[in-house]
Request: fold
Amino acid sequence: MATVYYSDPMFDELYSRIPEESRRMSSHSFAIAAHINEILERKGWNKTDFAVAMGKKNAEISKWMSGQHNFTIATIAKIESVLGEDIIAVKKYRKPIVRYNHMPESKSQFVSDIKTKYISKGKDSSNE
Reply:
């Protein structure tokens, strides 16, 4: 038998009032904390080991691991350095390389073509 989930209309109404930005921030914070926890488990570290390695108090690490901490880029970079693994991944977008179908045979011809194309015809180009 399939599991059926019910949603309370009041909950749905309240949830819809939360701005998308806040929902995303919360989701990312919980995901970062969960990822750190997974790495700690793989390393066989507990929160105290992590606190010592980070130079922080246990209470601060507990706050981080609750998923409600707003991590700065500097903090994430330090965590990644201490743990030796990436915590977050960022897509790197690259600009496409513009390739020309036809390149004039000589540089002087290329420059001449550019002047003709982009400099107004009423301007005297003999002084250039």
